[in-house]
């Protein structure tokens, strides 16, 4: 993932959330995430993106059944955002800045930052974020070879 702050490499975890990983790959290949802002960024907690409206109120239009798993919400964890309904995950996801174990078992963990966490740390904070950073492009590594 190339962001306005630099590259972030995420290891996807289909062993934890096969449906979510498949959907993120599909959206990435379609260019859905390219240009989308980090609309909700909370210091010491997480950076959230994936809303085409840039407000946290939009998605791709395809709700995903929850795949709650044994993944832990630690620094660099990638997990799906959702509304109150556990089966409301869509395209929005967040990257944890720090331990957020209170989310364990309630949100679908689908990946882990392998490199570039220093770039995630640089993402502008806010709710909403003024002049937000964005995903320049999100590519699936297998597609880059």
Structure description:
The protein has one domain (2-144): Cyclophilin-like (Cyclophilin). Helix content is 14%, strand content 24%. It has three helices and nine strands. The protein has a six-stranded antiparallel β-sheet. It has a three-stranded antiparallel β-sheet with strand order 2-1-9, with no helix packed on it.
Instruction: For the largest sheet, list the strands in their spatial order.
Output: 3-8-6-7-5-4
Number of helices: 3
CATH architecture: Beta Barrel
Low-pLDDT parts are none
Helix content range of the residues, please? 10-25%
Radius of gyration: 14 Å
State the major sheet: 6 strands, antiparallel
Q: Total strand count, please? A: 9
Q: How many separate domains make up the residues?
A: 1
What do we call the CATH topology?
Cyclophilin
Query: For this structure, what is the CATH class?
Result: Mainly Beta
Ends apart, CA distance between termini: 15 Å
What is the SS-derived class? alpha+beta
Measured by DSSP, the beta-strand proportion falls in 15-25%
**SSE sequence, one letter per element:** EEEHEEEEEHEH
Any idea what the CATH superfamily is called?
A: Cyclophilin-like
